[in-house]
Amino acid sequence: MNTTELKGNWEEQKGKLKQKFAALTDNDLLFVEGKKEEMMGKLQIKLGKTKEELHKIIQAL
Hints:
This protein is an all-alpha fold. It is built from 4 helices and no strands. The chain has helices spanning 3-8, 10-20, 36-47, 51-60. The protein is globular, with a radius of gyration of 10 Å.
């Protein structure tokens, strides 16, 4: 998944992630250009998932 793909439909994916993981907030899912890895790291910590697991979850949305 590249940044363009993630940014293109992020609002839709963000809503689905919040439905799947109620503990996530808008701040957790704040996508800022150039800060994708930082956001993914925060999600890894909050959800207890590996980077690969997060990529699979997001791709499955």
